[in-house]
Amino acid sequence: MLNISICDDGALQRALVVLLIHEYESKFGVKFNLYQFSSGEELLEKFNEDRNLFDLYFLDNRMKKITGLEIASYIRQRNKDCYIVFITASGPQDDFKVVSPLRVLIKPAQQEDITKILDKVLEGRIGRSPIR
């Protein structure tokens, strides 16, 4: 079972991503462990407890104290095998390339994009495409 981190200081944005992931779970009969964080500091505290806990990170870029890019850089230096996806309303996307994100999405997230991302991560983690 994949562990997914969702980090956004906006509760509605987190709720939307959770809803889209639940739609995927219902449609394809899979289950994910979802962890929500309202700040980068909360996420990094959990990350430092277990650097390999999360398979996939959904990160907002603009948050109050620490940016999603700063979080991703910290994570990427310590875990090269995880997947990182930015869901943001801001910034030039070229800045994100330094952390090799799987995708950069513009808010609001869309079901089609979340489906493609989850398909890709499942394929990479279990070595086969999801059954359709």
From TrEMBL:
Keyword Hydrolase attributed: no
SMART domains tied to this protein: REC
A GO biological process held by the record: phosphorelay signal transduction system
InterPro entries: Bact_response_regulator, CheY-like_superfamily, Sig_transdc_resp-reg_receiver
Keyword Cell division (UniProt): no
One Pfam match: Response_reg
Superkingdom of source: Bacteria
4-aspartylphosphate modification, residue list: D60
Domain named Response regulatory: residues: 3-122
Alphabetized SUPFAM superfamilies for the sequence: CheY-like (SSF52172)
Keywords associated with the record: Phosphoprotein
PANTHER family listed in its UniProt record: RESPONSE REGULATORY DOMAIN-CONTAINING PROTEIN (PTHR44591:SF3), STRESS RESPONSE REGULATOR PROTEIN 1 (PTHR44591)
Function: May play the central regulatory role in sporulation. It may be an element of the effector pathway responsible for the activation of sporulation genes in response to nutritional stress. Spo0A may act in concert with spo0H (a sigma factor) to control the expression of some genes that are critical to the sporulation process.
Protein name: Stage 0 sporulation protein A homolog
Species this protein is from: Desulfosporosinus orientis (strain ATCC 19365 / DSM 765 / NCIMB 8382 / VKM B-1628 / Singapore I)
Species lineage: Bacteria, Bacillati, Bacillota, Clostridia, Eubacteriales
